[in-house]
Amino acid sequence: MTTCEGRCRFYAKHGVDELLIVGLQKRRVDWLELEPSSEYRTAERSRLIEPGPPGLAERLDWPPPIA
């Protein structure tokens, strides 16, 4: 399980196949994929859309850092 704990359980219960977590502080994108065990694991890329996490992070228009 990832750091999204309760939220991940909610989404897994409702059959959400993939989660995209955008970290504004670290300017990072993480993709999570639902496993048959109903837990999420980090995925290298989405099975639904392109690009993968690194490519998407590079293309985002990030807001200015919060002081």
Keywords, separated by commas or semicolons:
67 residues; alpha+beta; 3 strands; 25% strand
The SSE order reads HEEEH
> How many structural domains are formed by the residues?
1
- Output the structural class: alpha+beta
Could you tell me the strand content as a percent range? 25-35%
Give the terminus-to-terminus CA distance.
Answer: 30 Å
* Strand element count: 3
Coarse morphology: globular
Report the sheet with the most strands, covering strand number, pairing sense and barrel closure: 3 strands, antiparallel
Rounded to an integer in angstroms, the radius of gyration calculated over CA atoms is 13 Å
Number of helices: 2
- Helix content, binned percent: 10-25%
Cross-sheet strand order for the largest sheet: 1-2-3
Average pLDDT across residues? 81
Low-confidence stretches: none
Characterize this entry briefly.
By secondary structure, this protein is of the alpha+beta class.
